[in-house]
């Protein structure tokens, strides 16, 4: 099983990069941890290495910067994000049940939709 | 104005500003002209009316208006083109500057000139249009002696590409005296020349003219703009509706005004609840004359009601017909006379006939003095969908005729105290409205007491009372003027948007403006994150943190946790929209929050299961 990744924050910056950060209980040394983007329709994958900071005890801190301008998905509208550690991949998501889901409007503005609406 | 006191209005020159005055104008122009007279008669200050339309003369129109009492005989109307037609412009470049650069030659084709003559039959203006019939190529204005005094040129090159606009003032020898590249700059030049650095108050009524006056920044000018109708398009919901397009520029650039003047307190309150408060928001009622004394109750026909309304969809007159159908069942002698004309006349008459109410609801057409009809009526009705401030309601009160009004935005609840000087019922509640009409028709004591209270309450919007309100606003605005913040080019750029583990989010961004005259705005501006509810209810304001202040800029951080985001959101709201509100003194501006970085691009997106995806938007 992949080490459980807990999302702390996902940030979009003016330079067009996406910064994903969180924690995991442990990360196996056999294969570097990273994040995988998968095109919803094409299944095309691209992997980005994560920075892992291991402290003396407790969970490890994990972060990854994804340059969005470089994503190779010209025909896609949606891309899913996975955390990869060892042989497994784990869908990245919020750890608690969200009541309001963020989304970009058709004019490119930030709105939230009520879950289930 | 009392004889032993000084002028009620603070010292200075006063101008009412309109774009133009059409032959058959509506309520806004009526009020503007009337206010100019009231300022002279009750405020002790002469006020003139300013216009910008291309019109050779107002002579005939003013003669008619003066004979009808619609404008004070002492009130002057000054028009920019009439002004420069008579002005001496013989002195070369007035600023001592060089002669303006030449206008590029026009390589386009034009049609036959259209000519406008002045009342004496002399040419006032010649216009050459492009072959499309819509684009103006050249307009030349002529003095009474036939010499050109102004040219408005829009040349194109051989490929038809525009070479810009050139507006030129000429001396009698045809030499250019001054040239502008934007019409607004020409109009503002006139305002500065006219006011000649004297302390001046500009009261702007027209939204188009507000576009001219708004950018004008001068210490000797006080700029007040009147919000004549609902600030929401088509009278929509005050919290969710879009800003009325015609006045959107005023609201978005409200910092540039010394005062935004609403007509009713409720409208100002709605505006503040949605957008926030600022020190340049005021309320001043329109004035409306009332009878010198309460008309005798005995002259009122016991079962007669009156409406004065344009027969247009906004007035919602089908509701009045439906109410009278209910009234008629209980009171067969009741009648409603509707004065006014409009596009719905035939449809309404058909509705009345189909309902068998031909003798009950009577469309009386236009009456020059329809307001006098309220003196012999027992009740009046108001069923509009929306209003700025319904003048018919004020006329009814001012003649002691108690109204039964739908409690719409805006106006009724500002002047009607339910059960004291009339009745307010929920919009669309025909049964309740019919019940109040029947009570007024059948209960003499009630009708008499409400009628008297109606007339007494109308003293609040007499010319004298309203001019006194204006005096207080002008005085307050002059006091605040030196402290007014100037933030031209105010804009917000998002640097970072973060979604947090608890379902909340944070933004970090930069508020920027061009620092210039006035106090350092960076010391006084603050911000709020605004959670707007898409379907109903006022927005939620959460304080933002200013993390850095410098001339011309603030760095702002704001956020909401998962709980704050959905706090007290009613279940009919399925979407929340995010804004940043900036406020401080006279500054009040709301920015829609988007996503940082280039667009379109990939945006974080929560799937229905709470997983993180990226969406291209």
Properties at a glance:
heterodimer; A: mainly beta; Immunoglobulin-like; four-stranded antiparallel sheet; B: alpha/beta; 4 domains; 29 strands
Structure summarized in a few sentences:
Chain B: This is Glycosyltransferase. Chain A has 117 residues and is mostly beta strands.
Description:
The complex is a heterodimer of chains A (117) and B (617). In chain A, the strands form 3 sheets. Chain A has a 4-stranded antiparallel β-sheet with strand order 1-2-6-5, with no helix packed on it. A 4-stranded antiparallel β-sheet of chain A has the order 4-3-7-8, with no helix packed on it. A two-stranded antiparallel sheet of chain A has the order 9-10. Chain A is mostly beta strands and 117 residues long. Chain A has one domain (5-114): Immunoglobulin-like (Sandwich), CATH 2.60.40. The model of chain A has no long low-confidence stretch (mean pLDDT 88). Helix content of chain A is 0%, strand content 52%. By secondary structure, chain B is of the alpha/beta class. Chain B has 4 domains: 13-84 and 187-283, Rossmann fold, CATH 3.40.50.2000; 114-174, no CATH class; 297-460, Rossmann fold, CATH 3.40.50; 491-616, Immunoglobulin-like, CATH 2.60.40. Chain B is 25% helix and 26% strand. Chain B is built from 15 helices and 29 strands. Chain B has a 7-stranded parallel β-sheet with strand order 3-2-1-10-11-12-13, sandwiched between helices. A 6-stranded antiparallel β-sheet of chain B has the order 4-5-6-7-8-9. A 6-stranded parallel β-sheet of chain B has the order 16-15-14-17-18-19, sandwiched between helices. In chain B, a hairpin with a 5-residue loop joins strand 8 (166-170) and strand 9 (176-180). The longest helix of chain B has 18 residues, at 463-480. The model of chain B has no long low-confidence stretch (mean pLDDT 94). The chains are: A mainly beta (117), B alpha/beta (617). Chain B: Residues 306-454 form the Glycosyl transferase family domain. Chain B: Its EC number is 2.4.-.-.
